## 1
Amino acid sequence: MSDFKMLIGGNLVAAEQTFEVINPADESVAGYAPEASDANLDAAVSCAKQAFLTWRYSSNEERGKVLKAIAKVIKDNAVELSELLSLEQGKSQSQAQREVQQMAGDGAAARAAITLEPEVLQDDEQFRVELHHRPLGVVAAIVPWNFPLGIAIGKLATAIMTGCTVVLKPSPFTPLTTLKLGELIKDVVPKGVINIISGSDSLGPKLSGHPDIAKISFTGSTETGKRVMQGAAADLKRVTLELGGNDAAIVLQDIDLQKMAYPLFLGAFINSGQTCVAIKRIYAHEAIYDDLVNALAFIASQVKVGPASDPESQLGPVQNRMQYDKVMSVLAEVKANAEKGEGRIVAGGETHTGKGFFLKPTIVADVKEGCRLVDEETFGPILPIIRFSDVEEVIQRANSTSYGLGGSVWSSDVTKAAEIASRLESGSAWVNQHPNLTPFVPFAGAKHSGMGVESHQMGLKEYCQVQVVNIAKSA
Ligand code: NAD
């Protein structure tokens, strides 16, 4: 029996079946989540459809009020939510608190201020032409396991602020915190506006393929995103896809290493490297290459990796067995290449014996393109550092990937760095930081990293249909 219930039409609903959620720190069962039946799915979509009939006409003020009430519930229950998040996701206590308090709590409150207003395109003696953004209807919000609550809130807030209703599905690896959120917000959200259902692998395609879904907001891997888009084509469902990345950080020779080594390290290893916009490749100029490698290896050796139950832990495990196996197979290739003299591990890399999916921050120097570690999105605590000598050439190397999520340039010369950053083929290009996302700034993936935009008014427009009301005044 599950302690967790789904939120359907304003009621907490148990399912006949449950599935295990595994704590990645020790492989024990963290909890049991409801396995939504087809009837549960239909009920959730139908409640959302019913609620849309009235919620679509709510004012921005009403919408903002609901969102602020959700933000308050998150803040008031931050301790319980962040403990649960650490338990199922594996992230350290401080990182879980940050996700709950800042990404989810502050994020929801901030998004209450982001609204769409009608525009008057023409108003003269003959015509008045108004541009409106009408809510699309029921949104299927599909979330991955790396930032379960932070990503869910972005989607819920966008639905609320546009007058859409939503059926949210967390990842089967991390459903518990999201289900708990549903229980906590039950009485502050109008019935049916937010529905939360959980289930294992088959639920995602069933939800995104449901005929009463008008819009799919998907965050996850590029491969799954392509399948979602294929499925959506049949009835022209609108889609926003936030997908994988292989972000490059280009470090120029005039960088202040004392100041920037730690932000570079965090940019790569925060959430144990399981961040879509983590630095996944560092290109370091040959003049500072050895110093940067040594500085990052030193920081890596000082970091405490362990279970979130230990308050000293700074980084947690890889989130699940499947992902761990993938990271370990990339590491096996790195080790095999190193034996041939191609690349060397300068920090981490040791095999973890014992329970849990742990790998210490692993840094690989003297590598280049042509191996999985550099060419693919590993999505774990393992980072290649690649040597370069020519800026023009390194821009091409950074761009020679099918991904285009984020990228960054690091230098004491901010103007020069910004000019280079503007040539990166990525939706976000940062200077002397990586990443930096807020609700007020559009977030978009170029190339195979996504389609559409999240956050900012541009993100709201993705949940809306443009309608032009064109009035001839001569009645
Ligand atoms: P995933 O694609 O395996 O799963 C994401 C979600 O989709 C899960 O809820 C899953 O149950 C669901 N799903 C699976 N198959 C589906 C289908 N056919 N139809 C509909 N839904 C389906 O991704 P993941 O392993 O959970 O997350 C890691 C990936 O997510 C990485 O590639 C990472 O870069 C990416 N990601 C991207 C962003 C971003 O904003 N760009 C943010 C976080 C994670």
## 2
Amino acid sequence: MEKQADLHVHTYLSDSTFTPAQVVDYAQKIGLACVAITDHDCVDGIEPAVRRAYENSNIEIIPAVELTAETDDTEVHILGFFIDYKNVSFEKKLQEIRDDRVSRIYKMVEKLKEFDIDIDASDVFKIAGPGSVGRLHVAQVLYNKGAVANISEAFSRYIGHNKPCYVKRFKLSPKEAIKMIYKVKGIPVLAHPYIMKKDEMISELIKAGLRGIEVYHSDHTNAAQQHYKKLAEENNLLITGGSDCHGMGKGEILMGKVKVPYELVEKLKEARFSLK
Ligand code: AMP
Ligand code: ZN
Ligand code: FE
Ligand code: FE
């Protein structure tokens, strides 16, 4: 059987409930050959995953990241594959972005008070643990407090993009995100374009250096996958795909539910090796 890869997996260094070792063990259990660790604005999960894979399995770990960028009205997630994750200035920039995430949590907590919802920022940080804190952690606290019936309601009523308690970031433009990934010799790929719903932005991103699109994703319908596959082929872009697994963070373990043939990893590698 052909080897298969899941090219979009989070760890608890961002908002998954899985440790890097648990990611590797689970990937091993379900027979994946390769996993890309793509935490939001954090690379600290890569090294432990690589170590676990080296000790306990023959799974290949692709060092990657999911950078959160934003324009006036859209959130844009850019994946970077095969990054030099030990680069010191990259790590410093990520730390700045994560510091900004911390102040954003305080602002969201204040906004929630206007809706008579009283949560402690410290509870959000406790659930988040090390690495990047984000809205999924806020949603978990809201759920634990009984303020919402489920995680999805936290987003649809309060903290989803442009909902009343949403707080903008504006730390990084999509172009800057692409540039940041090139600086560490990574391949920039647009994550889940179907969630972004702004195809008109893609040509601009290509001009800025975008090299691929995530065609296969847990939130992509079959029609969306076909649409983005065609778009990728027409624009000579690489194709990637992954589950966007958050451990139990999204109610079920998604790892392995979306996987791609290893051939796509080889194409990413070719692109990586042809970078100057
Ligand atoms: P942040 O990094 O703080 O912007 O939060 C991003 C996290 O929130 C990611 O894990 C997203 O998948 C998750 N997220 C965004 N919108 C929703 C939604 N409507 N329902 C559930 N999770 C969401
Ligand atoms: Zn996430
Ligand atoms: Fe994303
Ligand atoms: Fe993700």
